[in-house]
Amino acid sequence: MRAEIERLVEEIKQSVGLLRRHLDVEKSTARLAELNKLAEDPNLWNDPQKAQKLMQERTSLEDALSGIGKVEQELEDDVGMIELGEAEGDEGVVAEAEAALKNLKKEVARRELEALLSGEADRFDSYLEVHAGAGGTESQDWAQMLLRMYTRWAETHGFKVEVLEESDGEEAGIKSATIQVSGHNAYGWLKTEAGVHRLVRISPFDSNARRHTSFSSVQVFPVIDDSIKIDIKESDVRVDTMRSGGAGGQHVNKTESAVRLTHIPSGIAVVCQAGRSQHKNRAQAWDMLRARLYEIELKKREEKAAADQAAKTDIGWGHQIRSYVLQPYQMVKDLRTGVQTSDTSGVLGGDLDEFMAATLAQRAFGTTTGEIEDVD
């Protein structure tokens, strides 16, 4: 075979090897057999929620395992066609099989990405918090830009977005906001965005049109279900009620429907003001608090837990994960993976998949794009 085709075949083989390693085929096959046995239990649907999750897991494993087999078979068939075409001097057959290989490579890349979303909590819905850093109006406006960016990303992917809390800035933007993003693997995707985000631009609030640097932080944690048990002592939690801020009508502004829970041992605080009912907001806030504590447990299991936690302490220099430069040139660069683009409007409009995929790959396989330099 010609060198270009041999290289393509080798790349596909390497990708399939990564897929098999990440999926742990032997372990996944055993788990699938276990799920198939459970699915035959006539009492399974006595608990519809449990049954649905079991069936979803079974379908996901079946698709992943059968997908690997399908790719390997197609690769073998395409290579066989190329060898046959070359032996008979039929360039048409060779070209057709080569095109099939290129399509197969795209299919493997898609499955690689899906395999990266196999963490314990990846399948869950996600809470996402945005907090403005120091810098007043500049950072508060940047926080609102980030909130809009993630909202658009979620909507583009068919996820549902609900605003749970939003605190307006004094002149423009927001001081903080919490949204819930609901959809399959929402947390798996969004967890890559946790950290400090840096913006460089000509300030629209500066009459002298000077360049400003602003920081805002993003925190992400999964919306956990009843299968995850997180015990919290009520005596460890301080409950405060307050009037909801921002838009919401007369009822929201006149009643103390907003609820803040503070977990005293960890210092974690959550706020919910989405509903008009204090009872509903209290229940939502407890769910959020359990999710935050669960996320901390997940972080402890990751090799980079210390670095991740440090990124949440200071919203400023030295802790940013991504820089968005709008002046004097256009560039968005991820400081963890080195992925960059000049399409700043696209990124701010929610085009984040390339950055998310690169971070997922780095965490799963340790891949990197080389030395990473900061952007000025």
Keywords:
single chain, 8-stranded mixed β-sheet, disordered C terminus, 11 helices
- Give the oligomeric state of the chains in this entry, treating copies of one chain as homo and distinct chains as hetero: single chain
How far do the termini sit from each other? 47 Å
Number of H/I helices: 11
Q: Main sheet?
A: 8 strands, mixed
Q: Please tell me how large the radius of gyration is.
A: 24 Å
Q: List how many beta strands DSSP finds.
A: 11
- Measured as a percent range, the helix fraction is 40-55%
The spatial strand order of the largest sheet comes to 2-3-1-5-4-9-10-11
* Unreliable residue stretches: 247-253, 308-313, 368-376
General shape: flat
Q: Strand fraction band?
A: 15-25%
| Element string (H = helix, E = strand) | HHHHEHEEHEEEHEEHHEEEHH
Derived structural class: alpha+beta
| Mean of residue pLDDT values | 84
Structural account:
With 376 residues, the chain is of the alpha+beta class. The chain is 49% helix and 20% strand. An 8-stranded mixed sheet has the order 2-3-1-5-4-9-10-11. The chain has a 3-stranded antiparallel sheet with strand order 6-7-8, with helices on one face. The longest helix has 41 residues, at 48-88.
